[in-house]
Structures are given as C-alpha cells and as structure tokens.
Amino acid sequence: MTVKIIVPSLGESVTEATIAKWHKKPGDAIKIDELLVELETEKVTLEVYAPATGALADILAPEGAIVRVDDLIGNVSEGAAGNAATKDAKVEAPKAVAPAAPAASSAPILAPSAQKIATEQNLDVSKIAGTGKDGRITKGDVLLSGTSSAPAARLEERVKMSRLRKTIAQRLKDSQNTAAILTTFNEIDMFNVIELRNKYKEQFEKKHGIKLGFMSFFVKAVVNALKEIPSVNAEIDGDDIVYKNYYDIGVAVGTEQGLVVPVVRDADHLSFAGTESAISTLGKKAREGKLAMSDLTGGTFSITNGGVYGSLMSTPIINPPQSGILGMHKTMERAMVINGKVEVRPMMYVALSYDHRIIDGKEAVTFLVKVKEAVENPERLLLDL
Fold first, then answer.
1. Which of 72, 114, 117, 264 has its CA 20 to 30 A from that of 188?
2. Is 356 a residue of the active site?
C-alpha cells in the first residue's frame, strides 16, 4: 500500500516552502514518525515525519523545489523492505590484506605549520629548499617561497539565497522604506547590575535551575519603560494608532540560517527566573531550527544584543510592524567621572531605533533614559518602581 507524503500546514499567512533537505533516499527503509524531510519557510524550518513504516518509494519534489500546502512530495511503500532493512543479509568478511611495505621516498619533510600554508597556497613543495634540521622545510621556507610564486586562483562560490535570508532582506528593506527610522543613544553603567548578578547568580541557578543573565534585567527595564511611554509599544495600522496594553518582547537570536526574533509572551507577568527560562528555551529552539510560527509572531517591541559579537555601537532596524527596537552592545571598562572623581566603570552603549511617525524625539529619549535608570538601579526593578 502506498502512503502519500503531503506538505502540512505551514502556519498563518504562509503558503509556500522550499524543500531544504531530504533525510532519506528512494528505497531507504523508514519507520513511522521518523524524520523524512525539512521544509524551509520564510520564517521557520518545519520537519515532516514518515506517515508509515516501510520504504521511501519515491521523491516527487527534490531539494530546492518550491512547494505549497497539501502538495504531494513523495510516497511511502507501507510494509516494504528498504535498503537499510537487511538485518539478516550475509556480510562478507573483508579479505586480509598484507600491509604494504613502506616505499622508499624522497618526499620532503615539512613542519606541520609549513604543510598547512603550502596546502592553502597550492605550492609545489618539491621545489622548496628546506633550511631546517635534516633538510626539513620550515614555515619560513614556505612563506619565502610563496612570495615569489604566482597568486592562487581567485575562487568564487555562488549559493542560492535561502527563503529565510530572502525574507529577512525583504523585511529589513521594507522597514527602511516604510518607517521614518531615527536612532537615539545613551550609555549605561553596568556596575550595580554586575555586582548584583555576581552576588546572587549561584543561589539563583541552584534554586531555579537556570543561569541569571543580563537580558532579563533589560527585558524588565524595557517593560517598565514601555508602561510609561506607551507610544513605543504601539503600531500604525492604516490611519490608526494601535496601543498595546500587553508586553510581548522579541529577543533577537543569531542562528546559522540568519537572525530570528522569537517572542517572550506577557513579559510583564514573568519573574526574573521565568524570563530567563523563556529566553533560554526560545534560544535553544532557534538554534535547533525548531521554532514554531507562534514563537515568532505578535511581538510588540524587540531587543537585540550585538554585544555578544563584540559590537560597540550600532543602529538596529525596526522589526515591522513594531515601532521600536533596543540595541545592546559590548560592555567595556572606561574612565568615567563619578561624584567628581575619575573611576573605571563597565559601560555599555545602548541604542533605540524608533519610528518617528508615531514616536516623538522627546518620548524616545525619555524611554531610553528610563531603561538606563532601571538597569543602573536594579533594585528598582525588583521593587517595581
């Protein structure tokens, strides 16, 4: 009996997907619910599992093909024995082969570092005179030889842009074309929050089973500021402004496929432990390509942390239809004047990019100051002040 492999529902407003990878070949044995194929949509990667046990009969949509919901992409021969299901097949023992006698060779001896460079530059080592012990070719010999050799071929590789990368590119360009984006900057003294975290991180992890990071402080600070400056949590819908009285905070995560922004729901109702747990779970799902469509939709504001990659300052782009995004950056020690004295403090630049069509400059600056004050005085977050 033949069982069809059908493209499942791809999520709200998503109608097409690309066949990213088949995990089985025609004729391979498969078990029911075994991973068969990955579909890449404009937002997430979906996994399609075997509908029955048997063998993969055929593949009707190869890797790279564009498919739609309910398309037939392959068939399973239910109950059939596949190539991988020959448990009782006799395996011929490999014949013993006498070890080959080491052949005399006049090949030059290279130091490991020299071999690496020679391979990368495609150099003929037989033409390089070794100056090391016993004629060994050193790294210096290879470098000196490489300066006089012809340049290596200038290679290029052309790779088809993934559906996710195309969507990211289109959405970011649409954001720039549609919104009147401005960015305002400030800096945060991270001393107090670092001290607080260092003091309680072991107890926090022991009690809650999760590490205490800095992102939960920023999520809490953002929610606190959004409550006071509601326009930053709003969006434009035609001729209307929609003010959101809930706080779903998108936290950007870098993956091998590109940047995704899963959403921490009802962040205003979460404890620090709940916030850290939500961020950790979403981050893991993002890196494993297991985010659902519901994890990525409906955010009211976003946070991105370029500091994990070493960024000192940047101007993040709004994630439409949201009206604001906070950019965190690398914490660096700098000389600061504190109460008339110069002290070394751990400082972080922060940036708020906002849609000037809905948020005035005064509101944007005030919002960022509120975030700064909350992070610099973390006890205010704990006391909801």
1. 264
2. yes
